[in-house]
């Protein structure tokens, strides 16, 4: 077995067909087919099943792909670390963020990182579930993650600051006259909420437990920007991290009372390389509490 075969199998799982995987990898289709057939012969199992919608991993295939992903990520990190002594750092950095966290801070830090290492490839994705982030960290797939809580040791986990949560109201809402909005004042309001298994919906439910135990759900969304825009249009109020408020909507935002916040923890993989270390230091320089900027004049 080879890392190339692992990469080909992962590409098929992502693209759904050998043809699409070959295009994704910029290689000839017969080469992909040959490598996968050889891999399945060596393993003595079928990794993919043909369906009307394309190739999908079998049960055994899914288990194999999980380990292949770890191996490929480790190989990329090893190459990047080996080249760290060169003038330019090359390789791939995989960053995951709990949804809504670092929306204002992360782009600036990543921009500075890319200017320092222009050949470094950075992959960033938002993850709604804090439990899934924790699982990905344990598997070694991520180089750095931003989350509210983790079970890692202090050497791997770094407290950057706090994300304060704010309420977003529609234009003309009576509570916009207040500097801070008491949570009890929102009882009976319809809410724009997030997916049921997301960390953000968990924060809202915890907040409302003592103030509005049976909240009315106006809508459920998957992105913080969507929640803010829908709340701005009067569909319902919503609660989001302060840094996640899109530009132009600040005048509709108020801090809440009692204050709601979560720590922002950066978790780096064990044996972090120069790219992860540099990004961590850049994130430390960012400002992590911004709700005061939303107070009315």
UniProtKB/TrEMBL annotation:
Pfam families from the UniProt entry: HTH_1, LysR_substrate
- Where, if anywhere, are coiled coils annotated? none
Organism equals: Streptomyces sp. NBC_00119
InterPro entries under this entry?
Answer: HTH-type_LysR_regulators (IPR050950), LysR_HTH_N (IPR000847), LysR_subst-bd (IPR005119), WH-like_DNA-bd_sf (IPR036388), WH_DNA-bd_sf (IPR036390)
Q: Where is the HTH lysR-type domain?
A: 1-58
Keyword Transmembrane helix present in the record's keywords: the answer is no
- Which family does this protein fall into? Belongs to the LysR transcriptional regulatory family.
Q: Which Gene3D superfamilies match?
A: Periplasmic binding protein-like II (3.40.190.10), Winged helix-like DNA-binding domain superfamily/Winged helix DNA-binding domain (1.10.10.10)
Q: Which GO terms describe its cellular component?
A: cytosol
A GO molecular function held by the record:
DNA binding
* Protein name from the UniProt record: LysR family transcriptional regulator
Q: Which PANTHER family match?
A: HTH-TYPE TRANSCRIPTIONAL REGULATOR YBHD, LYSR-FAMILY TRANSCRIPTIONAL REGULATOR
**Keywords assigned:** DNA-binding, Transcription, Transcription regulation
């Amino acid at each position: 077995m080879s890392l190339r075969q692992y990469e080909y199998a992962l590409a098929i799982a992502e693209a759904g067909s050998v043809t699409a995987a070959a295009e994704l990898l910029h290689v000839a289709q017969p080469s992909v087919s040959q490598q996968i057939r050889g891999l399945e012969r060596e393993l003595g199992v079928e990794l993919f099943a043909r369906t009307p919608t394309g190739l999908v991993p079998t049960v055994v295939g899914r288990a194999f792909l999980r380990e292949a992903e770890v191996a490929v990520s480790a190989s990329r990190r090893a190459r990047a670390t080996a080249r760290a002594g060169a003038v330019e750092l090359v390789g791939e950095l995989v960053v995951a963020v709990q949804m809504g966290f670092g929306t204002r801070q992360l782009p600036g830090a990543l921009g500075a990182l890319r200017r320092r290492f222009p050949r470094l490839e950075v992959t960033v994705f938002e993850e709604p579930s804090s439990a899934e982030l924790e699982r990905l960290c344990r598997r070694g797939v991520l180089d750095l993650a931003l989350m509210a809580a983790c079970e890692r040791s202090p050497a791997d986990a770094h407290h950057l600051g706090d994300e304060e949560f704010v309420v977003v109201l529609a234009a003309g809402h009576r509570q916009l006259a207040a500097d801070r909005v008491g949570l009890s004042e929102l009882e009976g309001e319809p809410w724009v909420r997030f997916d049921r298994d997301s960390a953000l919906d968990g924060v809202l439910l915890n907040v409302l437990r003592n103030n509005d135990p049976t909240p009315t759900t106006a809508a459920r969304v998957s992105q913080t920007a969507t929640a803010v825009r829908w709340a701005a249009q009067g569909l319902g109020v919503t609660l989001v991290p302060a840094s996640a408020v899109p530009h132009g909507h600040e005048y509709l935002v108020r801090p809440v009372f009692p204050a709601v916040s979560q720590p922002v923890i950066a978790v780096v993989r064990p044996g972090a390389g120069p790219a992860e270390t540099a990004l961590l230091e850049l994130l430390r320089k960012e400002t992590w509490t911004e709700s005061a900027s939303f107070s009315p004049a």
